[in-house]
Amino acid sequence: MPPTADSSTQQDRNIAATFAKGMAVLEVFDGQVPALTLSEIARLTGQDRATARRGALTLVHLGYLRQDGRHFSLTPRVLTLAGGFLRAHQIGRQVQPVLNHHAAALGVEITLASRDGDHALLLAQSTAHGGPISYGFTPGSRLPLLHTSLGRMLLAGEAPDRLEGRIGEAPLTRFTEQSLTDPAQIAATVAAARQAGYVITDGEFEPGIVGIAVAVAPHAVLGSSVPRGRDGADGLDAILRGLQNCASELRLAGALSGL
Amino acid sequence: MPPTADSSTQQDRNIAATFAKGMAVLEVFDGQVPALTLSEIARLTGQDRATARRGALTLVHLGYLRQDGRHFSLTPRVLTLAGGFLRAHQIGRQVQPVLNHHAAALGVEITLASRDGDHALLLAQSTAHGGPISYGFTPGSRLPLLHTSLGRMLLAGEAPDRLEGRIGEAPLTRFTEQSLTDPAQIAATVAAARQAGYVITDGEFEPGIVGIAVAVAPHAVLGSSVPRGRDGADGLDAILRGLQNCASELRLAGALSGL
DNA sequence: ACATGTTGTGCGTTATGCGTACAATTGTCA
DNA sequence: TGACAATTGTACGCATAACGCACAACATGT
């Protein structure tokens, strides 16, 4: 065995560090602030100012960033990257119509989500039929994993042994007064979700909002949110059945096989 | 002026070539094929296989690509980049609800698009209220600029002098029998669109589909597609008025100022 | 069987990106 | 208005990190 250089000092020859640093620049544009200056980019990425500058200028050159004076902001071009994923998985053709159809029948918004790190990542979303309520999320939005029905249903699909570590580590941010803070309690809801095939959360992420989610594929879940009280107990049951029907239909279409 | 090195051999010291090459790797995943091998990536990007390999492995390391044996495919993580743009421009909070509302009132699908190079780039889309039809497009999808109502309305918003060059250069691919192929004719429709504030195309991109579009902001347009004959002449008028109302409401919200 | 096309991976070379340093600019308090 | 502080833009020497040739192992097809 050749003395593989220590992984701390020596870089992996198969990884392009410059590329990774550039992606880090792109990643700091998470939308929380509409535009960033070079110094802010450098600070947020932890890179040298000159390095951040090269990364940002390269992104401008490629058309992903716009430079207005000293402010850099994203261009719509980043959407084309997402478009590649959505097209590859036939989201527009095979998934979205199904979501729309069931959402119209139920009168609620239906969301398809997958997992990205310790967040639930929204892949697609139907619009609420007559729903005046909208939470402002879009494809690409990320929700917490531990305190949303979507996230817990995703966790329920994971291997049980990997769960405890995942739950225990997180700082367990408390979003509402009703947010569960005990890791054991959260693990219990996840276990129950795995058992039942669905999960319901009540106001743990946004107060007064009840979330309900079911599994579709190994790493894909379906969910809806409704204001508490808007639908009675049987209303939730109807939504649950609707989500399960929707999930079945998506499975039949077989478009979500690869994550 | 210092003798700036010739731009052909000497790289711009402010552009990170490795980063640009890596982005090129990411860009070839446009969704036309669900997965790519290293050789395909190298061929499509024109890079050396070793270079393409480093780029792809870096993307795997960062979580944007998945490697299954010899096949690389996109992960949902690319959506987070799009999410940054959508959140920065308040698409989910300020735009999507407006689109949904007007779409439900009109019974048609409404699409918000911007421009990316010589394509119209879909930013957001409402679902048709009772609409069984869906064209399989999603945010991030790209439509031709010359033969769609969205594209021509975008061109109508450009400076007139830059138009002729833009139209004349393109190979003028013919999508349907009704596609206009004469640059002068297309330029005339664009000029008419600028004059009237809206544009209607009939089956030039997809046969039997009528497209209608209006301008919202300097580089943003709104459009709908309906099957020919589904709505009579007054139906199209109603849709046009609805789109214009929708555009006004979006302008009032003022969320689309920066492209 | 050979021929053709993959794929993975060393490794020497040198181009390339790094970051310090300085200059120019903006903002802020007296 | 001053002078100070904190940004920003840019250049350039140096070391490193990316390049791409080359080879070997494997697959595919004629």
TrEMBL record, chains A, B:
Q: Where is the IclR-ED domain?
A: 77-256
Q: List the residue ranges forming a coiled coil, or say none.
A: none
A GO BP entry is:
negative regulation of DNA-templated transcription
Tell me which Gene3D superfamilies the record gives: 3.30.450.40, Winged helix-like DNA-binding domain superfamily/Winged helix DNA-binding domain
Q: Report the InterPro entries cross-referenced here.
A: GAF-like_dom_sf (IPR029016), HTH_MetabolicPath_Reg (IPR050707), Tscrpt_reg_IclR_C (IPR014757), Tscrpt_reg_IclR_N (IPR005471), WH-like_DNA-bd_sf (IPR036388), WH_DNA-bd_sf (IPR036390)
Q: Which GO terms describe its molecular function?
A: DNA binding; DNA-binding transcription factor activity
Protein origin, superkingdom: Bacteria
**SUPFAM superfamilies noted in UniProt:** GAF domain-like, Winged helix' DNA-binding domain
Which segments constitute the HTH iclR-type domain? 16-76
Signal sequence coordinates = none
Q: Which Pfam families match?
A: HTH_IclR, IclR_C
Q: Which UniProt keywords apply?
A: DNA-binding, Transcription, Transcription regulation
Protein name in the entry: IclR family transcriptional regulator
